[in-house]
Design goal:
Elements lengths: L3 H31 L2 H27 L21 H26 L3 H31 L3 H12 L11
Helix pairs in contact: 1-2, 1-3, 2-5, 3-4
The structure holds MU-OXO-diiron.
Length: about 170
């Protein structure tokens, strides 16, 4: 049995990860509309990874005898101003997710819930990678997407991303 606050935050994180999946799915749809299949692919895979994160939190709760309460997932409601806009919004979003993971870690630390802290270690590292990837996308866009040829080549690079299941096994 977890501390109530830790449990509440873990359960909420399932919702936040599904929201992330929904947000990136929305961005994938935007790029699909714009004819940028590589950017679409990158965000579609990102969406799949976020769903995986949600499932890891679900499994962790269940493995520890806790029930899962699914909460409503908000619509992304995001309008994109240009091709770069989703990249910027994705980076901002990842920083929010990092803060949320850190918040759960802090709650677990306060009640000496070392098991949850160890579980969250993977997510702490993962967030570092996700923020870096999101920031790299912005940098690459600024460097190379200034003309149609550069955008075409960057789109091709984004097309090469492949889905891999998360390395964390519970
Ligand atoms: Fe599940 Fe992008 O953090």
């Amino acid at each position: 049995m977890f501390n109530e606050e830790v449990k509440r935050l873990l359960n909420e994180q399932i919702n936040k990860e599904f929201y992330s999946a929904y947000l990136y799915f929305d961005m994938a749809n935007y790029y699909a509309d714009q004819g940028l299949a590589g950017f679409e692919n990158w965000f579609f895979i990102q969406s799949q990874e976020e769903r995986d994160h949600a499932l890891l939190f679900r499994q962790y709760l269940l493995d520890n005898g806790e029930s899962v309460e699914l909460l409503e997932i908000a619509a992304p409601n995001t309008k994109y101003e240009n091709f770069k806009d989703p990249l910027v919004k994705a980076f901002e979003h990842e920083k929010l997710v990092t803060a949320s993971i850190n918040n759960i870690y802090e709650a677990a630390f306060k009640v000496k819930d070392f098991r949850t802290m160890q579980f969250l270690d993977w997510f702490i590292k993962e967030q570092g990678e996700e923020e870096k990837n999101a920031e790299d996308n912005i940098k690459k866009f600024e460097l190379f997407a200034g003309d149609p040829k550069g955008l075409y080549m960057l789109d091709n690079e984004m097309k090469a991303r492949v889905y891999t299941a998360p390395s964390l096994v519970l």
